Each structure stands twice: as C-alpha cells, then as structure tokens.
C-alpha cells in the first residue's frame, strides 16, 4: 500500500482532537551574499496523522506567478529539470531536523536563486484546517566586502604601545552592517582580542576583558572604514601573528543578527623585545678610569649609576646600592627612599648615605663621613617595572627586568687598634656545684683612638661526646662598646637569676663567673675582645676584634646514686582493713635542690603484670589512675625524703606486692625547671590474707524463647550461695550480709554487636542505656538472690542472645567490712521476636483492593465522557494527492 495512504489512514484512526495545522518558515525577507551558504527552515505544528511529516519545496520569482519544484522529502523525482543537477550534486539539499521540521540548504547561492521560497506539507489531517504552506523572500546580493589591514611594526620594545590599523568596507546598496575583529595567533590557535560592531557595541575576548576595562586596549574609529586598536604597554605575552576580520551582517525581522559573509586577513607578525635585552646598568666613581676608589676616614663617597634602555620613558625604575652584597639604600619605583645604612646586632653603623636622581637614567649615591666599615665592593642594582593595564589604572606593576652593574671597590685607609689577650681561671671548681670564675686581661694596647672603648664576648665549647665532630661554639653573652649586656637565650635564665655573671672589673679586664658550676659547664672557653671607636657622626663603631686562646675547664664528676627502702607500717590481715607502707629515699651526689616523683606500683604475683596505682610529682601534685578508688588511696610526703602510702578497705583483689618507684630531679636554682638525675625502685611489701567467705553460682532462665511484637519478655538471673555465712559462720546466709551488682548484656542477631542493656548496683540504683528501639526494659528483684529482666513492647530489633554478669559483695566475718567477691557471668539465652504475617498484611491488602476498584471506576467514567464529547461523524473526506488512494472508513 502507498506510504501516504497508510499515513492518512493512521491519522484518521488516531486523531483525538480538533486542531488547525500551522506551517512556518524562517522570518524574512532574507538577504544573503552570492557564493555563501543559505539555509531556510520549515516546520509544521498542530497536525493530525503520523508523527513524521513530509515537505515539498518550491520557488517563485515574484511570489505570485508560476512556481518551480525544487526538492521533496517524499518524492526523489520531485525536482524540476532546472534544479535536478544541483540537487544530485548536493548543492541543494534538504535535511530533516525533527519529525516536523526540515531545513533547505543551498551550498553556494547564485544571483538567479533570488525569489520566494515556498514550503508545503501534504495533508494528513482528518479535517482541513489551518495553513499547509508558507513562503519567505530571499535576496541575493554581490560580495563587496573588502578587508585591508595595515602591516604593524615587526618588533616593538616592551612597555611601548602597539597600534593595529584595519580598513573594512562594502558597497552600501542594501541594508547591511559591518563589524571588525582583531585576533592574535599563537602556535596555530587564534584568540579573539576585540570586536567592534555590527551595531556599535564592543565585545572583548575572555583573556582581554580586564585589560580593556583597565584601559590597556583602546579602540580608535577612523574615516572611510578605517579602525585602529591600540594595545598599551605591551609585554612579551603580546607577541604573535595578528589578524583582522571583517564581517557583513543583516538584521532580520524578530531582532536576529545574521552573519552573511566574512573575510580574515593576516596583518603581520609582531615580536616584543624584552626590557632585559636592552637594559644596561653601569656604576662609576669620580675617577671613571679606575674600578677602585681610595678614601680617608671622614671623607664623602660619591658614586654614579647610569641606566640605558630602548623604552626607558615607559619604565619605572627601582635603584639600589649594595655594599658587599648588602643593600644600604634604595629609591623605589614610586620615588620612596629607603635607607638601610644602619645595621643591627654587633655590626657598626655606616656613614650617612643619600641617593638622588640627577637626570634621565642617572642616579647618584653619596656617603658622608666614611669609616673603615664603609669600605667594600659597591654595585648598583636596577629593577625595571612596567605598569599593567592602561593609563586609566594606577598601582598595578610587574617587574620586567633586573640588572646589576659591574662592581666598584671602595677602600678606606685607617690604622686599626692592636692589643694582646690572656685568659685564665681565677677560681676553678673541684666538683659540681662549686664556683667557676674566668678572667680575660687585655694588655699592650696601641692605636686605640681617643674615646675608644673595649667590649667582650664569651663563648663556650662543650666537651666531645665521643663523636667525630666537635660541638659548635655557643655564645654565652657579651658587653658591646656602649657597655650593654647581651645574653644568649640558652644562658638568659641563669644570668637573670644571678647564677651567671658578666662584668668589667677594670677598663682592660673582664670577668665571667658561675655561682654553681654544672656538669654541662665543663669544656673550652674563649673570650673575644673588640675595640670600638667614635665616628664623626658620634656613633660608636667596631674597629677590630681579637680572640684569646681556648682555656679548658674540667673537674671530676660523680654520678648521682639513689636508694629506696620500703617498710610496712600497718599490715592488712583481713578484708576491709587498712594497709600502710612508708618509702625512704637515700641519695648521694645529686645536688642542692632535689625533688622526687613517687609512683606506687603493684603486681599480683612475682613476674606478673605491673600496674601503677597513684603518683606524687616533685611539685607535690597527686594523681590517681583509678578514679573509683580515689577515697581509699592516700600518698603523702611526711619528710623531705620519706613518703607514706595508705590503702583503706583492702579487698581480695588487692592481694599482691607493693613498692615505690622513685625518680630524683634536680635544679641549680629554684626558678629553673627540673632535670632528671636518677631513678630506682624499693623492695616489695606483700598484702596476703585469707578470707573464708561464701561461694556463689549463677544461672539464667527464660520461660519462652519466642514472643510476638509488642509482647513482654521476661528473663531470670538466679544466684546460688554456698559455704558459711559471712558473719555467723553457719550455712544459712543472711540477706543483710549480701549485696549484688547486676549487669544485663544483649548480643544483636543482625550485626553480632554486644551492648549493655541495664545495670543495678549493689545499692539498688538502676541505670538504663539509651535504646534505638521503641521497646523498654526494667529490672525486678524477686527475692534476695533472683533478678528478672523485663522487656516491654518487644520489637524485631530485640532478637538476639541475653546474659547477665553479677559482682557479689559480702560482709567480712572478722572485720565486719564489705568485701567484693569475684565477678560471675551466666550462660546465654536466645530470644526471638516473631512476625504475625496476617496481621501485618491484611491492612495493605485491603487498601490495595480499594484503590484498584476506585481507579477502575474512574477510568470507565472518563472513557464515557471522552466518547460523548470528542467522537463524532466525519463529514469531510481529505483531498487526494499524487500516489495517495482515497480511503473510506466507518
């Protein structure tokens, strides 16, 4: 059967509404350029019949007369003979975009293609309504677009401006518009810089938007279609091949801008010469022929720095003078003068320095009142900055280049002071803790200028520790030319406390004194004496310094010893009694300030695991390892070398061996921190007694192993007592002499995790753990030896194994005190919570049946309404078309 007949038949069968067909084409009129591709879209909506529609394209020169068939989506032989060759070659084609939308394409439009293009859709509707064709006018104009760029300079210096000129024109015979675009190509990829037009707007590329906003890109429209783009302050990143693009646009109905033709011309390749290639920095003195300069103390030093560069006016310069690699003065690129002539620490102060700009690229350094410290190698360092962005922005700079001049050597002639040093020990300790005093004498002093002063610094080198490398020297402290005391941080605490002293006992004698020498003070000592003179500006500067020969200080040292003696003060013979033990410390060669850290340790058997019960720090701070026994344990210091330990309410679990572990600490001054001297352990004191108390047994029982949800489950934990009564000694136990701490545990069936459910201590206080289930628990004591766990409103999550753990307590027959027995663990019982299938399913089944019945009734009612409103007899028979058959249907 013919395809169109089938389409019509299916359209009549499935049409369900009364709609009007709408055929639309691209908004016109369309203006296109000769030789350019053209595409015209056509779509149909609100139609009946099959989803996929066919389209016929025709063309009329005036829109009224005879039409010429171009191409069809249904009939391959539809084209007129004047178009058949172009259709066969692909110059004219139709592309289906959707079931109801196609696009007519002309690869290269010709002047004779101008006219009215008609899109027709064959009828597949049951009722003819709406429009079945639409047309649009196409105007073909000649290509008159011309792009004529001006070749830019092949090389521009960094920091200068680059002007890109391009001429874009066309013959103004039709209402078309122009735009011009500048592009730069780097590595085969072109990046858009800026576009002007087609309606006078400016659009920048993503990488150039901020630069345009800052004024770094400026558009200068000219006359006769000439446009200029100025790139301000170019950098090396701006080099590349520049292109100019001209585009002709048409403004179609609906406000749409359409590009109809474009042309791109290469402007030329531009390279940016880096500032570092042309920057030249030179330094000179008043004697340009010599690279060195000799001055006398108090003279003025004058040096010149000359800067040359191709783009010098576009650069902002930072000029610095350095002496022996150290920066002494800087004139930054904003004009701020920064002077670093004054050094810190023990180095002397240089002469007064100044730096001024005397001309374009010329800077002069002046140093008045030079001294020996001003001698050295001088260099001029220049950093060239280029401002980012355009002239509308200020303050964003980047450094383009940095150059340093050749050195100029400056020498200051002066006669330095000379003297001789001798270092001796005026007081040498025989053992640790005795005073140590060293004397540094200066003799044969010559050439010390008037007003000159002497300063000293002391260094200590520790004794070798057996390694191959000698320890580095450590500065103890110094007295500078002003008489100021400067101490190193390692000795600051001892110097502030008075344990260490530096002094000048005579103009030419210095003393170092340790009030109590320590073992770490042994080693070699060196004194360094410096001569200071007064400069012409009144500053004290260091002229020269000499070191003494090292002096070794050493004495015999004895290692500290520590012995601990433990004695039993009160023995614990029955449970609940009090145990007391004293520990006495005996020391030798420890020091004057001694502190002890005491740890009370125990073990059940010899060789067993050791645990620490409590401790006492050297500052008398007590710490307990078991907070639950804080009230039973006491550790106190009775004398400076004796400590007392007390354990009240001894239990069977406390039996074992007890001793003191003592660590001795020492320090030279009360304000200093403690230093470990030695540690030792005392002898062991046993706690051993026999208690003939009752023996206990435990059992767990449950009446049922499975329950239904929301039922109550009960589990019984029973205790059996055998042996003599704790107090009376008979087989009959008294309830007031026994107490139990009971804990219930639960192992979940799903994940196997065990958690505590509830607990009751021996005083009857109940503690419940937080639960994720809606069920609840309680503990009921049925009699003296029976506890019942109740689980109310059981849920599926309560399924699992349950067991109880009990800790008995009884009163000792001998002392009448409470004694803790060993912990008991019962067996396990399994509880299963069964699901009632019918009870859980009857409501969902009832709701489902009711919902299904309601949906069925609603569907029948909706069908009747649709049949009455929308279904009626079809009066019109659609017209026949070529290759379609008339089809009648009841």
UniProtKB/TrEMBL annotation:
Domain Ig-like: 20-129, 142-262, 288-382, 417-545, 694-825
InterPro entries with a match to the protein in the record: Ig-like_dom, Ig-like_dom_sf, Ig-like_fold, Ig_sub, Ig_sub2, Ig_V-set, IgSF_V-set/TM_domain
Keywords, sorted A to Z: Disulfide bond, Immunoglobulin domain, Membrane, Receptor, Repeat, Signal, Transmembrane, Transmembrane helix
Subcellular location as annotated: Membrane
Transmembrane intervals: 845-875
Signal peptide range: 1-20
PROSITE patterns reported in the protein's UniProt record: IG_LIKE, PROKAR_LIPOPROTEIN
Membrane topology label: Single-pass membrane protein
Main location per the UniProt record: membrane
Cellular component per GO, a single term: membrane
PANTHER family attached to this UniProt entry: PROSTAGLANDIN F2 RECEPTOR NEGATIVE REGULATOR, V-SET AND TRANSMEMBRANE DOMAIN-CONTAINING PROTEIN
UniProt name for this protein: Prostaglandin F2 receptor inhibitor
Protein source organism: Fundulus heteroclitus
Lineage start: Eukaryota, Metazoa, Chordata, Craniata, Vertebrata
């Amino acid at each position: 059967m013919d395809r169109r007949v089938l389409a019509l038949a299916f359209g009549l069968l499935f049409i369900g509404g009364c709609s009007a067909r709408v055929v639309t084409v691209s908004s016109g009129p369309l203006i296109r350029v000769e030789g350019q591709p053209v595409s015209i879209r056509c779509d149909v909506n609100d139609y009946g019949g099959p989803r996929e529609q066919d389209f016929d394209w025709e063309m009329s020169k005036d829109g009224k007369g005879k039409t010429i068939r171009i191409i069809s989506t249904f009939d391959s032989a539809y084209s007129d003979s004047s178009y058949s060759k172009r259709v066969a070659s692909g110059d004219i084609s139709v592309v289906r975009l959707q079931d109801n939308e196609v696009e007519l394409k002309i690869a290269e439009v010709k002047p004779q293609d101008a006219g009215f293009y008609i899109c027709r859709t064959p009828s597949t509707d049951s009722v003819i309504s709406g429009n079945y064709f639409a047309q649009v006018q196409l105007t073909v104009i000649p290509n008159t677009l011309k792009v004529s760029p001006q070749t830019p300079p092949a090389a521009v210096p960094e920091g200068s401006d680059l002007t890109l000129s391009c001429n874009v024109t066309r013959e103004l015979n039709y209402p078309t518009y122009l735009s011009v675009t500048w592009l730069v190509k780097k590595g085969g990829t072109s990046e858009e810089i800026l576009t002007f037009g087609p309606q006078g707007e400016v659009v920048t590329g993503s990488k150039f938007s901020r630069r345009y906003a800052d004024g770094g890109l400026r558009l200068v429209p000219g006359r006769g279609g000439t446009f200029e783009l100025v790139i301000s302050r170019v950098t090396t990143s701006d080099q590349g091949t520049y292109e100019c693009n001209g585009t002709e646009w048409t403004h179609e109905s609906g406000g749409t801008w359409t590009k109809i033709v474009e042309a791109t011309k290469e402007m030329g390749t531009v390279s940016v010469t880096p500032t570092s290639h042309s920057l030249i920095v030179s330094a000179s003195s008043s004697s340009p022929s010599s690279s060195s300069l000799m001055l006398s103390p108090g003279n003025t030093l004058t040096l010149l720095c000359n800067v040359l560069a191709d783009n010098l006016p576009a650069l902002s310069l930072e000029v610095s003078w350095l002496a022996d690699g150290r920066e002494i003065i800087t004139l930054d690129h904003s004009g701020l003068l920064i002077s670093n002539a004054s050094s810190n620490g023990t180095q002397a102060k240089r002469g007064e320095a100044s730096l001024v700009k005397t001309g374009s690229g010329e800077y002069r350094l002046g140093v008045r009142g030079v001294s020996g410290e001003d001698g050295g190698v001088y260099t001029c360092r220049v950093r060239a900055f280029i401002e980012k962005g355009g002239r509308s922005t200020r303050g964003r700079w980047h450094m383009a280049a940095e150059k340093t001049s050749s050195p100029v050597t400056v020498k200051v002639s002066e006669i330095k002071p000379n003297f001789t040093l001798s270092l001796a020990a005026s007081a040498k300790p025989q053992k640790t803790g005795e005073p140590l005093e060293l004397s540094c004498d200066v003799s044969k002093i010559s050439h010390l200028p008037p007003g000159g002063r002497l300063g000293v610094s002391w260094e200590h080198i520790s004794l070798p520790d057996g390694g191959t490398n000698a320890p580095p020297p450590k500065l103890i402290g110094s007295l500078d030319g002003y008489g100021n005391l400067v101490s190193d941080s390692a000795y600051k605490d001892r110097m502030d406390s008075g344990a260490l002293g530096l002094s000048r006992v005579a103009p030419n004698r210095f003393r170092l004194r340790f009030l109590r020498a320590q073992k770490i003070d042994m080693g070699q000592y060196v004194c360094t004496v410096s001569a200071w003179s007064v400069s012409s500006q009144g500053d004290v500067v260091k002229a020269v310094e000499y070191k003494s020969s090292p002096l070794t200080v050493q004495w015999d040292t004895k290692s500290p010893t520590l012995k601990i003696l433990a004695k039993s003060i009160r023995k614990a013979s029955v449970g609940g009694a009090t145990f007391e033990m004293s520990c006495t410390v005996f020391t030798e060669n420890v020091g004057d300030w001694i502190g002890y850290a005491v740890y009370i340790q125990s073990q059940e058997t010899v060789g067993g695991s050791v645990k620490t019960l409590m401790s006492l720090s050297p500052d008398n701070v007590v710490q307990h390892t078991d907070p639950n026994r804080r009230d039973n344990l006491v550790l106190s210091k009775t004398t400076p070398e004796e400590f007392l330990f007390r354990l009240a309410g001894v239990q069977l679990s406390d039996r074992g061996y007890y001793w003191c572990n003592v660590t001795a600490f020492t320090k030279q001054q009360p304000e200093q921190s403690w230093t470990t001297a030695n540690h030792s352990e005392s002898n062991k004191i046993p706690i051993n007694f026999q208690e003939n108390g009752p023996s206990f047994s435990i059992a767990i029982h449950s009446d049922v192993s499975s329950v239904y949800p929301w039922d109550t489950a009960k589990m019984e934990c029973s205790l059996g007592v055998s042996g003599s009564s704790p107090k009376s000694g008979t087989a009959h136990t008294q309830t007031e002499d026994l107490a139990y701490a009971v804990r219930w545990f639960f192992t979940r069936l799903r994940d196997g995790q065990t958690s505590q459910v509830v607990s009751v201590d021996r005083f009857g206080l109940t503690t419940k753990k937080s639960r994720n289930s809606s069920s609840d628990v309680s503990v009921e004591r049925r009699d003296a030896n029976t506890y019942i766990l109740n689980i109310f409103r059981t849920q599926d999550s309560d399924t699992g194994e349950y067991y109880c753990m009990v800790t008995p307590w009884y009163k000792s027959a001998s002392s009448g005190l409470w004694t803790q027995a060993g912990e008991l663990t019962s067996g396990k019982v399994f509880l299963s919570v069964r699901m009632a299938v019918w009870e859980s399913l009857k409501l969902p089944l009832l709701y489902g049946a009711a919902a299904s019945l309601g949906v069925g009734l609603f569907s029948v009612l909706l069908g009747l309404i649709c049949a009455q409103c929308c279904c009626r007899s079809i009066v019109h028979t659609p017209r026949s078309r070529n290759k379609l058959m008339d089809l009648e249907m009841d």
